[in-house]
Structure formats: structure tokens, C-alpha cells
Amino acid sequence: MEPIDHPVSRYALDVVEGRETAGDLVRLACLRHLTDLETGRDRGLWFDCKAASRVLNFAELIQHTTGPLAGRPLTLRPWQAFRHGSVFGWKKEGGLRRFRTTYHQVAKKNGKTTDTAVPALFTALFDREAAPQGYCAATTRDQAGLLFRELKRMIRASPHLSALMQVWRTSIEVPATEGLIACLSRDGNSSDGINPHFAARDEVHRWTDRELAEVLTNSMIARAQPIDWAITTAGADRASLCGEMRDYAEEVVRGTVSDDSFFAYVAEPPPDCDVADPRFWKMANPNLGVAFSEERFGEMYREATVISGKMPNFRRLHMNLWTEGAQTWIARDVWDRGAEPFDPRPLYGLPAWVGLDLSKTTDLTAISVAVPKDGQIYLLAYSFLPEGPKGFIARAQKEKREYVAWRDAGWLEVHSGGVIDEDQVIERLETIRARFDLRELAYDRWGMKYMAKELLKRRFPLVEHGQGYGSMSSPMKRFEEAVAKGRIRHAGNPVLAWAVGNVHRDEDAAENIKPNKARSKGRIDPAVAAIMALGRAEAAEGRRRAREVETA
């Protein structure tokens, strides 16, 4: 086979000639490949079709182990074959691989972690390297373990691989080559004494320091043809280790910098693109239509237009565009769709769920009541503020002038003195219990020693509710979904609206979310209480529906 006829080159031609949708940096990477086929010999470079095909054929031994594709062979798509075939096919004088450092930036859920199993397993088995060491590396043990656990599942699922490799709790061993694969993280295993032949660096945009990266790359110096395989989505800070790699990748594919040892595949649409245009979706998501449908992707886009706090992560995680800074969680015009006034009296006696966010002594305390009725969720929010050491007017002038108007309109309850009067908050809870069928009162135990004891004495149905990802992610997502579907009625409470507009939305690698008080631009206590209340109400409704299905 001539190199120009190889699947790696066919993909490159399809991109360059416009038959395959791709962003500018992928097009330049493909053009680089085609140009090097013509001129690379002058620099001692050549494309080995057999070596490229060997790794592509090896991929067929691997099976998917999760999701709807579980049990099926790992069939590399053309864009994946281009990356793997390029890295293993290009050689330099002496027959060693050309590429030592690789950077793969693709949007989330396109299988870049899964297809990293191909080089990770291949280099441990068939690279003719003495005692090859491979590492799944990330800043945290949990993140590093994602790829490592998937490798173990893939080996167990394949008779061919399980005959060649032994799977243990903390390592994968290859008796024939005396090789091993293990996890490596900044917060876990020691990196002393490692000698990597292959290193998969996962989610590089989360790497906040250079130490682990430098230990890995510097430790490869004794290997003849190691591979540093860096995979990531776009990040939020170009002034970072990942940002530097991305910018260097652009310089290399544009030809500004000459580095024959660096391979880059950066699936970015133009930074000023219209993210509503499906043509740009494909540029960031080469597996669009394979791993997920265009219809589902369109739903995610529409959700991000309604919950504007989702838009930065939609642009970064799903459009693979670098974002800087934070945006509002829920746009005010979207929130105001639920602002029509309502009379709360018809809700009295109905089941209700309450969220309590007790502040520090001088801050805002909030109670939110969620009352589901006829597919809508009615929110009643009560906010409490101590007047402060210099008096309420002085505090309002210093912090927020609207406090005075909110107090006068009954949206804000002001307590005399310098701290919140917890007994007054308890009396407000008593009033709420008298009016509604109170099912649960969710609270964060921080600072609640006195109040929790008192509420237990009064037989309130207390439910402890943490503020981390584990406790807040599902309620916050339920809240976002209710807003997006227009199911929340809040009567235009201005204190609640202000708090919702202040929320900074944090998201971790597993797409868990929570409000971040430290990074939010103002007080968010009423919003936090509302998320807790609505989340408990929605969870209870889900349990009720499940019981109805079981008994039907």
C-alpha cells in the first residue's frame, strides 16, 4: 500500500478537500501530514503503513465495556484512525517513532479516554520495549483511575488480552515483556523512580502545577521511543500548563514552530463561531452522530441558552472552546418568567418541603418553601438580616441600598442587633409548619447546633443536607430543569432573584455541580435554600411515581 492510500491519509485528504467537516487546526494537522508525505524524506521522516495498520488492527481486539456499546468491538472512526495511525506510523531515521509528545483536545464524550486504551495496551505488549512502564496519570487518584479501571475491564472482556496480561487491584502486568501499567496522581502514588515508556495524561486542563507533568516527561529520557499522550477538553485559563500546550500545538501545525516530535489534534471551531450552528458542533465533536445524536446535542445547547450559567461549560466542554471567567447561572429574563404574583393561601395545607440556609452571625439567613401543585413548583422565600453594629441604614448604604426597599415591601426581615435572632427564625418555621403539610426541613449542619437541637425538641422533620457536590448536584440540576421548563413560580421575590443572579456554578470532572459561595459575586443564601427545598420536593415526587408504577 502506498502511504497516500492508507486510511490515515484518506482522512487527511477528506478534511483538506472539504469532504469531512473539521476546524482549522485539524485541517492544518491533516495538511501537515500530506505535506510531510511529499517532503518528509528530506528530514529523514517516512510513513510506515504497516506500523500504522498494526495499531489500528490491534484496536479490534478491544471491546467497549460501558454504555450502549458494551460488548462491541472498539471500531476506530476515521478521525481516531488518523491520530493513532499518525503517532505509530510516522518514523524517523533508524526506524524509531517520530512523535514523542502528543496533544489531543476534543470535546467531552467523544471517546478520547476510551480510545487511549489503544496506545496504552499496545505499547505494553507489542512495542519490543524491555520492561515497558505505562501510566494513567492525572491530578487526582479518581481521575487517573477512570482510564485505569476501563483498561482492566477491557482486558477481562477480551480472551486475547486476558491471555497476555494479568489484572491486579493496583497494576496490570505483562509477563512476556515484564511490563506494567499503573495509576499515577498528584495526590496519590509516589512518582519517584518511574521510567515511563507510555504516559496517558488525562484532563490536562485540570493540571494546576507542573511537578507531575515534568516528572513524567523527564523520566522518559532513558526510553528510545516513549509517548507522552496528553488528552483534554478545552480549559478556562489559557495562562496554564494546558493552555501552553494548546498554543504550542497551534504554532506547530501552523508551521510557526518546527517540531517534528510533536503531534497535535485540536478539534476547535472558530472562537467567534455561532454555537447554534450544527456545522460547528461537528468541528468540536468528531463523534457527533456516533456517540450521541445531533438531536441530543441540540437539547444540550437549548438548555444552555435557558440556563445561562450552563453556557460557559457548554462552550468549553461540548464546543471545545476555551472560556475565561464566569457568567451568570440563570439569566434574569429567564428567571423572571416565573415572576407572576400568586396568592399563597390556596397552597395552605398542601405538602411542602423547606430548605434552611443559616448564615454566619452577621450574614443573610434564608428559608425557602417549595410547594408542588399541578406540575408547578411554588417557591416562598423568607430572608433575614441583622441590622449590624451601626444600624440597618448604615449597613444598607454600605452593602446594598435595595435592602431598605426590600424590608419595607416585606421581602426582607431585619433583626435588631448585630446577629441573626435564631429564635425568630424558629418562629417563622413554626408559622410555615402551621400553614403547610411540612414533609421535610433540609438544613446544613454547619452552625446549626443550637437551632437543630431546638427544632428536634419541637419535632420538626429534619433532614441533614450537605453543601458539596454529592449533596447539591442532583438538587441543583433539578432546579435548572424546572427553570428551563418554566415550572417555577416565585412571585417576583427580588431577594431571591438577586441571590439566583449571584450564583457561581461549579462543575467537577464527573459533571457534578454545586453553588460556590466563595466565588459567587454576592450573597446566594436564598438561592441555596431554594435549591435544597426544590430538590427534596422533586426527589419525593420521584419516589411517589416509582411506588405508583410498582403497584400498578
At a glance:
One of its GO terms (molecular function) is endonuclease activity. With 552 residues, the protein is α/β, with parallel strands linked by helices.
Describe this structure in words.
With 552 residues, this protein is an alpha/beta fold. The chain has 2 domains: 96-284, P-loop containing nucleotide triphosphate hydrolases (Rossmann fold), CATH 3.40.50.300; 332-551, Nucleotidyltransferase, domain 5 (2-Layer Sandwich), CATH 3.30.420.240. It is 41% helix and 17% strand. The strands form 4 sheets. It has an 8-stranded mixed β-sheet with strand order 5-6-7-4-8-9-3-10, sandwiched between helices. Strands 11, 12, 13, 14, 15, 16 and 17 form a 7-stranded mixed β-sheet that branches. β8, α9 (211-219) and β9 form a beta-alpha-beta unit. The radius of gyration is 28 Å and the shape is elongated. GO terms for molecular function: endonuclease activity.
| Mean of residue pLDDT values | 91
Helicity range of the residues?
Answer: 40-55%
| Major β-sheet strand ordering | 5-6-7-4-8-9-3-10
Q: Kindly give the count of domains.
A: 2
Q: Could you describe the largest sheet, including whether it forms a barrel? A: 8 strands, mixed
CATH hierarchy, class of the largest domain: Alpha Beta
| Low-confidence segments | none
CATH architecture of the largest domain: 2-Layer Sandwich
In terms of DSSP E residues, the strand content is 15-25%
Tally the helices: what do you get? 21
CATH topology call of the largest domain: Nucleotidyltransferase, domain 5
Shape: elongated
Q: What's the gyration radius in Å?
A: 28 Å
Give the termini distance in whole angstroms: 63 Å
Structural class: alpha/beta
The count of DSSP E runs of length 2 or more, i.e. the number of strands, is 19
